[in-house]
Design a protein that fits this description.
Elements: E1 4-11, E2 14-21, H1 24-28, H2 35-56, H3 63-68, E3 72-74, H4 81-99, H5 106-119, E4 121-125, H6 128-141, E5 156-158, H7 188-203, H8 221-230, H9 236-250, H10 253-270, H11 284-290, E6 295-299, E7 305-309, H12 312-328, H13 333-336, H14 338-341, E8 346-351, H15 362-366, H16 371-374, H17 379-392, H18 394-416, H19 430-441, E9 442-453, H20 455-458, H21 463-471, E10 475-482, E11 496-503, E12 510-516, E13 529-531, H22 533-539, H23 552-564, E14 620-622, E15 628-630, H24 633-637
Parallel strand pairs: 3-4, 3-8, 4-5, 8-9, 10-12
Antiparallel strand pairs: 1-2, 6-7, 9-11, 10-11, 12-13, 14-15
Helix pairs in contact: 2-4, 4-5, 10-11, 10-12, 17-18
């Protein structure tokens, strides 16, 4: 359903319905994950949590409660593949506890899975269709035939896991000034004015006039959510009662104020900075004033109600922010799952988050909107067609500009919001910021198990994150795969990805394996090796990125070499045992006057980079015609043969 986009085409007065290839699957990161990879993550991330919790439980009577208190989430859940696997695994353990049997029968197993789905499973996805599919999948899996379907609206939610407030304390500092940095379509002059205005407002934040007061909020949201979760679901009436109470919680005035405050804070990054929006743009003063407001509820019917504040001017700003939040799917973790974060976070995070750059891809955008632009022969031709678009299709041109603004605004949020201190580097990819988010979502003794490109451990843009992960001993395992055997059919065969497991508590040695093509290869112990944070710092002291080895023998041999022979230069300690210095001596463009085109006394041939290779100083040579060619094996075998420089 996500691969195609419905389109109605008029051809000579006849309307035709067609399904054209769209970009919904790619832009939302909704890809199917092979079951064998899902099961491996269950093994490395969820099962250690289950085992540890059960080992801590002293009484058999408490085992069931312990299992049902587990909190498992997929922050990019799609149709629920990982959540289903987690529900089955916890459900099987629960059925064993209840029946005392190693392999429980289908009926107690089904009932146990239903109870796990009701109590343990959480999911978030930006795609509303995926959220609905996830609910249906969980309903089917947990339907024992006699009981009603679970109520899931409070646990499986639609939202952008990367955009919104994670820790509500960030509101205390006001809106960051950089939220008003201009992107495509913004007024740069207005951007400068708003930055200055907001800076001043932040400096004065918290000051009240004589007749003002700040609303006290002593509501225990976590307790309210726990009470909601405790409502049984054994009859349709109980399910309807639970749904009704959930809706009442959402309209509770003090919660709505916090929800609106989070939306104001987030909307500042996304709302277009234009004169048209000037009266609706939220700043720190609006956030500060909202704390002092009283909320009134206007009920038009039992299902139709409206919450608003008495200050009409501020109410317009709040309404605009809340509308934008609904449109862009802002997701505030601290408000959506308060009972989880009261306990410091989830017990386990599982998933396969999107691997996409946060940058509008023109070809993908126009794939289902304009075939001529999408199929242009090259980028230059595509840009020319886009430039002419306002003359031919003003509505599509505006939609493209709006999409560019949204993409750049999201990039701005990730870089400037303060949520992503380790991964908001370079050309941002969603997998890296998702990895950083999952680490913040788990409790101190929780675990993460995600599938991400291997660049999370080896790329320069991820070195701060991976270095922090290893040096704080939070890396449990990293198993690298090459896609040569098509584990992901829709992904290039050269793509390298990893099963990354993160622990909330310190682990002395992380488990590693590289160049795998199938999960079953993890059973081969010679492919596995362990590295301590000290080992990684020894091998790669300057970047703290992950060294790559094919076997445990390679890893041990390399460690012994590095223990005896230091690196050329340790940039962290400043130690330079070899006395090496690096410099750019000559530049072919800037220093062209120093080079001669003909041989002469006191001159030496110019040896260019393309003439040598790793471990081979005679890789290529110039020909008489001025071209270069690789040396033959015979020439390399001739010790007296010298490569020729440019004639």
């Amino acid at each position: 359903m996500l691969d195609f986009h419905p389109q109605v085409i008029q051809n000579e007065g006849i309307y035709q319905f067609k399904l054209v290839f769209g970009s919904d699957r790619k832009t939302t990161g909704a890809y199917y994950t092979p079951p064998q990879l899902v099961q491996q993550l269950i093994k490395t991330a969820l099962e250690p949590v289950i085992e540890e919790r059960l080992n801590k439980t002293k009484s058999n009577d408490e085992l069931e409660k312990t299992l049902l208190n587990l909190k498992v989430c997929d922050p990019a859940c799609g149709s629920g593949h990982f959540l289903l696997a987690a529900a089955r695994r916890i459900g099987k353990e629960l059925a064993r506890v209840r029946t005392g049997e190693t392999e429980p029968g289908s009926e107690p197993l089904k009932l146990a899975i239903r109870d796990v789905i009701q109590n343990c499973i959480y999911g978030v996805d930006i795609n509303p269709l995926a959220v609905d599919l996830c609910k249906v999948a969980l309903w089917i899996e947990g339907f024992p035939g006699k009981l009603p379907l679970n109520f899931l609206d409070h646990r499986i939610k639609c939202g952008n896991s990367l955009v919104g407030v994670l820790d509500i304390s960030c509101l205390d500092d006001g809106i960051p000034d950089e939220a008003y940095k201009a992107v495509t379509g913004d007024d740069k002059k207005l951007s400068t004015q708003l930055k200055k205005r907001n800076k001043k407002e932040r400096e004065n934040k918290g000051q009240l006039s004589i007749d003002e007061r700040r609303e006290d909020n002593n509501v225990d949201y976590a307790q309210i959510w726990r009470q909601l979760g405790a409502i049984p679901e054994t009859t349709p009436q109980e399910v309807r009662s639970k749904e009704k109470q959930y809706k009442e919680i959402l309209r509770e005035p003090s919660r709505w104020l916090k929800y609106s405050a989070c939306n104001l804070w987030t909307a500042a990054f996304f709302m277009p900075l234009t004169e048209y929006n000037l009266q609706l743009l939220p700043t720190t003063e609006a956030l500060n004033r909202l704390e002092r407001e009283i909320v009134e509820t206007i009920c038009k019917s039992e299902e139709n109600y409206e919450l608003r504040i008495l200050n009409s001017e501020l109410n317009k700003i709040v309404d605009a922010a809340n509308k934008l939040a609904e449109e862009k799917h802002f997701f505030h973790w601290c408000l959506e799952f308060p009972e989880v974060f009261e306990q410091s976070g989830f017990d386990c995070i599982l998933g396969n988050p999107p691997w996409e750059r946060i940058k509008l891809q023109e070809k993908e955008f126009f794939a289902s909107r304009n075939a001529d632009i999408a199929n242009a022969i090259n980028k230059a031709a595509r840009e020319k067609l886009i430039k002419e678009l306002p003359k031919k299709n003003l509505e599509l041109a505006q939609a493209f500009e709006d999409a560019k603004h949204d993409a750049e605004a999201q990039s701005k949020f990730i870089r400037e919001s303060g949520r992503f201190l380790l991964t908001a580097v370079g050309d941002i990819n969603t997998y890296a910021v998702f990895a950083e988010t999952t680490r913040k979502l788990i409790s101190s003794d929780g675990r993460v198990g995600v599938i991400v490109p291997t660049g999370i451990a080896t790329d320069d843009t991820c070195k701060k994150f991976f270095g922090d992960l290893t040096q704080k001993q939070n890396l449990a395992s990293l198993y690298d795969f090459e896609n040569r055997e098509g584990l992901f059919p829709a992904v290039d065969s050269r793509m390298k990805f990893s099963l990354l497991a993160i622990s909330g508590k310190p682990i002395k040695r992380g488990n590693f394996a590289f160049f795998l093509t199938q999960p079953r290869q993890l059973d081969n112990q010679t492919r596995l090796f362990q590295l301590t944070p000290q080992d990684i710092a020894l091998l790669n002291p300057n970047t703290l990125t992950c060294p790559v080895f094919r076997s445990s023998v390679d890893a041990e041999l390399t460690k012994k070499i590095y223990q005896r022979v230091p690196v050329l230069e340790n940039e962290q300690s400043g130690h330079n045992p070899w006395g090496v210095s690096f410099m750019r001596m000559f530049d072919m463009a800037n220093d062209s006057g120093l080079f001669k085109n003909e041989a002469g006394d006191g001159l030496v041939p110019l040896y260019e980079a393309k003439m040598f290779h790793q471990f081979d100083h005679r890789w290529a040579t110039y020909t008489d015609s001025g071209d270069t060619r690789d040396l033959t094996d015979e020439e390399k075998g001739n010790a007296s043969f010298s490569a020729h420089s440019s004639p």
